[in-house]
Structure formats: C-alpha cells, structure tokens
Amino acid sequence: MEDIIEEIERLKRERKAVILAHLYQPEEIQEIADFTGDSFGLSRQAARTDAEVIVFCGVRFMAETANILSPEKVTLLPAADATCRMFTDTLTDEVRRARAAHPDAVFVAYVNTPAAVKAMADICCTSSNAAAVVASIPEDREIVFLPDGNLGSFAEAQTGRQMICWHGGCPTHMGLTEADIEAARAAYPGAPVLMHPECRPPVRALADYVGSTTGIVKYAMESEAEDFIIATEEGVLYELAERCPGKKFHLASRHLLCVNMKKTTLEKVRDALKTLEPRVVVPEEIREKAVTALTRMLEIAP
Ligand code: 13P
Ligand code: SF4
User: Fold this and answer.
1) CATH 3.40.50.10800: does it fit domain 172-257?
2) Which of 36, 172, 213 to mutate to test the pocket of ligand 1 (most atoms within 8 A of CB)?
3) How far does residue 233's CA lie from ligand 1's centre (Å)?
4) Binding-site residues, ligand 1, Cβ < 6 A
5) Which CATH architecture has domain 4-83+261-282?
6) What pLDDT is recorded for position 302?
7) What cofactor requirement does the entry state (predicted)?
8) What is the average pLDDT across 211-239?
9) In the predicted model, what is the mean pLDDT of residues 42-59?
10) Are 65 and 113 contacting, i.e. CB atoms less than 8 angstroms apart?
11) What ipTM does this complex have?
C-alpha cells in the first residue's frame, strides 16, 4: 500500500510536475519539494523549469508570479485560499490614483501584490533585491515604493535614496517588538540576530543582519557563531537545521507565524496533482503587462 509521500512522488512523475515550496512552508511540505527558497529564488525557478506542471506551495502572489513567468505551464496552488495580508484588490485603485498624482515617477511594486498591481508597476522587487532594484533607477527619477513601507525604508537606508513609501506591511513581522529582541538577547547572549526587512525600522536597528529568508540561511551557514536569534517566520527553522547541523536557532518571538503559509498540507498537494486543480491563471491582458515588471526585476541580481 502506497503512503502519501510515495503517492505524491508517483503523481509528480506522471504529471511531469515540479514542487516549489517557500521557506515558510510546513516542514513536511519543504521535505517533499524539489526546490525551496525565498520569493526571488522561487520566481527564478518558475521561469526556468521545463516541467509541465508547477505545484506552488506558498501563497497566491507566488503562484501568480509563476504563472506570469511560465504561462504555458499549469500552475497549481494546493492551498487555494492562501493569501498574503499585503495582497488586496483595492491596491489597484490606489495605484491608479498615485499614478495620476505622480505621472513621472517610477513605480516599484513588491512581489507580494496581485498580478493586476504588477501590471501597473514599472518594476517589481522582492525582499532580497529591493535595494538593487531601487539603485538601478536613475537618480533624477521620483520613486513610488509599494505597498510595504518597512521594506521601502530598508531600501532607502541601503541606497541613500528617498522614495514615496506606502504604509502597508506584514502583520507577522510588524508584530515583533524591541522588547522581544532585548529579551532574546538576554536569553541567548552573544547570539547574532538575523532579521527580515519586513520588520519595523526601530526593531531592525537592533539586528546584526537583515535580509530575505534565503539571505538569513546563507548568513547562518557562513557565520562562525553557533547560536542565532531568528527574527522571521518560523518555517525557516527547518532549512536552517538542514543547512547548519550542530548550530542552534532561537525564534525571537513565539508569534512569528504566518497562518496563510501553513495552509498547505500533504493531502492538498496530492489532490492538486491528481485533479490538476486548484489552478492559478492570470488573465492574458494582465499577464502581458505584469511580465515586463517581473522580467526587469529578474534581470537585476538579488
Ligand atoms: P522572502 O522574499 O524572504 O521570500 O519573503 C517573502 C515574504 O512573504 C516575507 O514575509
Ligand atoms: Fe505575507 Fe507576511 Fe505571510 Fe509573508 S509572512 S506571506 S508578507 S503575511
């Protein structure tokens, strides 16, 4: 009798599918994935893969990005209701109004946005390349950065550019406080604090390293330290344990959990492979505009 993992492996071969999983996914999902990574790494994989079906274990904006970059493939999002708190449809109206108010500005959209917003932007960015994207824009151009004001201010600090940053943000990361970091430092003296740029600026000021999920893993792998305080979503602990055997990782707070990232289950992955549903299909008139902003981003190294 086949167990569920064997069934997924068999269906994956039959469907010529690839499983991509974000580093915030549950451990059992990261274990069955062909590729794990941050938003940038997974977009690059989605653009390159020669599989016929992409099973995206993550949230909707990631699956939409895969479909925009590889429209000829079937893109499946096993957890169809997995969204991101920054992913709101009202954003399109706000971007339209901002475009009218700043007709000459360059609009940078964080990838955590609906495809329709990417279609209205000039260039996208992820948490790993926000500063590189901003630095690529000519100095004399006004920049509107949306919707994550915390990532925007991080890119400002790194590049020395001033932008019109919106005030959106990720509730998981914004909940982290200065007191959390001080308590973690007191509990684990000497352990470097590795943090995601979606955290608020005063909290970020207390970090030793700020970067995307992949950046955090890379930093921990290369560091001489043996204990680390991790200030991002708890799913990353799985990859850290895999990549850094013998090192210890302590979450900066018990509340670093994204419920949407935890909606994927092995059963949903299996059923998606069986039925080729639920699919994510970005309408062609939106896709052909959104692909420009995403392709420009992919041309810029993280
Ligand atoms: P990464 O760019 O590190 O993958 O982050 C995506 C995200 O949703 C962070 O909350
Ligand atoms: Fe969105 Fe935050 Fe969840 Fe990332 S952790 S998917 S930014 S809600």
Assistant:
1) yes
2) 213
3) 9
4) 38-39, 112, 126-128, 170, 198, 212-213
5) 3-Layer(aba) Sandwich (3.40)
6) 67
7) [4Fe-4S] cluster
8) 97
9) 94
10) no
11) 0.97
